[in-house]
Specification:
Layout: E1 5-6, E2 14-17, E3 20-23, H1 24-36, E4 43-44, H2 46-60, H3 68-82, E5 93-94, H4 95-108, H5 113-128, E6 136-137, H6 138-149, H7 153-163, E7 170-171, H8 173-185
Antiparallel strand pairs: 1-2, 2-3, 4-5, 6-7
């Protein structure tokens, strides 16, 4: 997992590690790579991405069939987007390939990347919405992302405070979708969506 030191706070903040200077968006893409890289080997493979659904099923204590929709959306995300990032055709995507390719695809919406990200988001939101009210409470949100990405619950508890735009103690699909889009597009350090996977 990459660790960065912040240089300055501004609309477009840069960070550094040694002589390397990167943007806020690059930092967020590295964080995204880390959460998808289930076995933490620095290589993103299909088993890493699809395996997130199995992790969630285990965490929620449900049968694999219950998370079939999420599994399908993750498989589609891999086949249509992530796999095409593998420029050297070695069966895996490294951090540099992921960062460069994701940036390019976000700008052009290549491979309908936003549709696929929304499908994934909607699938896991539906799984996490235990009371069926179409919203995620703080507990539902933290349990869902902790179970899927195995990051500390405190990480997502803090993120919830930032993402709950209207302060009603719940996250709607629109708030989650908006936060995800901001996470993957904004170079503004102060953007709420930056906190989606926890504080930068």
């Amino acid at each position: 997992m990459v660790s960065w030191a912040r240089l300055a706070c501004s609309e477009a903040t840069t960070w550094s590690e040694g002589d390397v200077v990167v943007s806020v968006l690059d930092i967020k893409l590295d964080r995204s790579f880390d959460v998808f890289d289930s076995d933490r080997d620095g290589r993103l493979e299909k088993s890493d991405v699809i395996g997130l659904s199995d992790r969630l099923a285990e965490s929620l204590g449900v049968a694999p069939a219950v998370v079939a929709g999420l599994r399908g959306s993750l498989e589609d995300l891999w086949d249509a987007v992530f796999q095409r990032m593998d420029k050297n055709d070695d069966g895996a995507v490294d951090r540099q390939e992921f960062r460069a390719a994701f940036r390019a695809r976000i700008v052009t919406d290549q491979n309908r990347i936003w549709e696929r990200i929304r499908n994934m988001s909607n699938a896991w939101t539906e799984l996490g919405d235990r009371d069926g009210d179409g919203m995620l409470s703080r507990e539902e949100y933290t349990s869902l992302l902790h179970g899927m990405f195995r990051l500390p619950r405190e990480t997502f508890d803090e993120a919830f405070n930032q993402l709950d735009v209207d302060g009603d103690g719940q996250l709607s699909r629109d708030e989650i979708s908006s936060a995800m889009k901001e996470y993957y597009t904004s170079d503004n350090y102060s953007a709420r969506g930056n906190q989606f996977f926890g504080r930068l």
